[in-house]
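Bench notes, afternoon.
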Amino acid sequence: MPIRKLPDMVHLIRKLLFFFLLLAGFGIANAGARPTALAFYYGANPPWGELQAFDVVVVDPGHVPEPQTVAAPHTRLVAYVALGEVQPSRPYSAGIPAAWLVGENKDWGSRVIDQARPEWQAFFVDNVIAPLWQKGYRSFFLDTLDSYHLVAKTPEARALQEAGMVATIELLKQRFPEAKLIFNRGFEILPKVHRHVEMVVAESLFQGYNAGKQVYTEVSASDREWLLGQLQRAQKDYQLAAAAIDYVPAANRELARKTAQRIQDLGLLAWVATPDLASVGVGNIEVMPRKVLIIHSKVQSEYHLRWAEAVRIGSLPLNYLGYAPEFVDIDHLPQAILVGRYAGVVVWLDDHVAPAEQSKLSEWLMPQVRDKLPLALVKAPDFLLQGDIGKLLGIRWGNSDNIGNPMPKIVQQSPIMGFETQVRADLAAFMAISPADGEPLLTIQRGEHKEVGAAFTPWGGYVLDSFFAIVLPGQNGDRWVIDPFAFFKKALRLPDMPVPDVTTETGRRMLMIHMDGDGFVSRSELPGNPFAGEVVLQRVAKKYPLPMTLSVIEAELSPTGLYPSLSKEAEKIAREIYKLPNVAMASHSYSHPFVWRKASTSDDTSGYNLRLPGYQFNLEREVTGSIRYIETRLAPPGKKVEAFLWTGDCIPGNDAVQAVKNAGVINMNGGDSVATRSNPSLTQIEGFGVPRASGMHVYAPNQNENVYTNNWTGPFYGFDRVIETFELTETPRRLKPINIYFHTYITTKAGGMRSLDKVFDYALAQETTPVQIADYARKVEDFQNLSIAKTASGWRIRGTGHLRTLRIPNRLGQPQLAASEAVAGFSEGKEESYVHLSGNWAELALGSVRSTQPRLVSANARIDQFTQSAKSLQWHLKGYVPLKFRLADVEGCQIRIAGRAIHPTKTAGPFSDFEVKTHVAIPLEAICR
């Protein structure tokens, strides 16, 4: 019989009860809590950034050989194991005697195992479970528990198979008492083993898949009623969690959402994905994919990727929108299902593509378009607008062979066109094309023919070469023709969501300072001609008690380096610098490679690094060796190097990034963010860095005095123009923190020193949160894989170990602090708010009503911990400078630090400002009536 539709009120009550059960009873996945969201991913290279949003993730252990190295703190990995069948590809299959195999599952190409054999029971525990336990798995998803029905056709035969499975599970729990078990069905044996089971899962409650016919199916009402009854029995009689897995095509994401909601409405956990379970589906939460796949032209080497236009000017707008670009060329196109894993695909080709590669890319794109993965064509190439792919995209071509010479004219233009420079109709590049459907952004008429130069379409959007970004004549740089923020957001259908922000800490723009060690032993023109390093000690490190990271080049200071006669005095100065509590230590390498590509790949490294007699470039020596030198000869006891600052061209290869990672420090430098009033284009501001296989190459937020002084040829006071960069990266969008980045040699010139003081004076006049560069670089690393998921009540954020700020469009709603978890406050702006998180996860609730709960608005320190109760709120603040903070709606509250009452220095409306001399507040309390 079909399930009757519940009356609306009963239906609503049921949903609310289930929701409150989730909030109150399930909690974050841990040893004693039930999961609120689970996922299944059996494919290779699981997308850990997305999967960490779930409490429980079932994986194929063949694709995750070392679970402890990839599992996120709040995500428990569960190993898939088949009890009733074996695939020939499994490593243990060769050890199973043929006599134990009693049937075949032709739909899946597997063999059915005789469960009644005692030898199999021991084999399963010893050869399937034990190796996985040894690798770190503590939870197991037991599949194919009903496969015996394929061979056992009598009640007696079925009873024998069931008894065998019960014996296997009893043996498993005897050997591994702490093992958590999830059943796929297994309803027949639950009465005997339910005490060993954590959850029961069943496939195909509403939507299924026929593997034999390879077709998606809708489950009949009678089958659904039976299956639902079994799941509800497990919940009611055995108090087990219950879940349903349904299958829908990747292209039908809306059906997946609706199906997941139907499952949840019945009080079950949900997972709706493709039948191979190798895609990121929809469950009780829906992860917002934060990676954008950018397909670029093939580059000569990994080092040349840095200059690809997609990297150089394309990263910034996507980063600002909250997305991490992932760059691949045509030879490395991923073959997995991309829906749910990527927010979209951008094709951005700089060079000519060979015919074979054209065909390869076109064929690869067609299933992505059919799966409805958003696609943006930047500088849309002709071959993707023609042929079968062009037809699929709905591109219409007019016959422009005999147009003649009428001049093109613009007849329609969207406001997002002409962003930094006006649109110019290009006579030579005119193509009579238009989309069959969509929103034209630019229409150019030439005679009777029209060219739609850019458009949003049902599949995404495109923009032709002439109307994306242009290169200005001479040395004037590039300019955006189209608004890249608006284009990518709408073409890729990027939703409004909380955006991880690396520019801001606790509501204030970050201030960071770092120095490349070049010229440490150069003599300054200041009175007395001191070493440049001595000027840094007295006029920078001691004068400005701000957190700063100062590096040295070993070969400049070491007694075995370039200047042995100066080493004793130089090392003494460095030791005095590194004794200062506000100074973090960094290495600027051993020999200062000028061109990393050539230094690391050439047998003759002369000219590619400092000329050290007898030295041949060695990556280990440059990184680990220079760090060891600083820590053993220059550092005070117990102080460690925090960063490695790239030298020269600042374009390391993956091997160098890996070497720094192995050394346990962060890497930074590179990127050319140098926008000024004379060249104010966003094309002059780069993204956060370049992803490498081993980790992120983190760019410096802006550049040093070298680029503001014409390669240190003058004017030597030119570094004060970096203030223009600070201002241009603050409004109308905060794109970067303030980064005072200089070389030691800036102190050798009076003009250089004056400009540095001016820059410090500017920074000190701003409301900032000072941080070390390691703090910033770790935020950039977090940004790449932090997960954001839509929940029934708002948003789930995970992976915020160092990145603790979310930027939220106000149109999404106001933060509801009482209904949120690990949300310590927010700073509200006209169009967006900065929300402060207090841990590596958060549950954020938003609503239409402005919160009047006492809150932390901003501080010049990091929030290490936050707790709240009915009568008080507590924040643990930790900063590098005397604390300044702003609270809101604390009228009638007593504000205390470590139990001592403090009073505001200023009040204005709902805001109260406080200042204290300490750098740490443990705890800062608001005790309210």
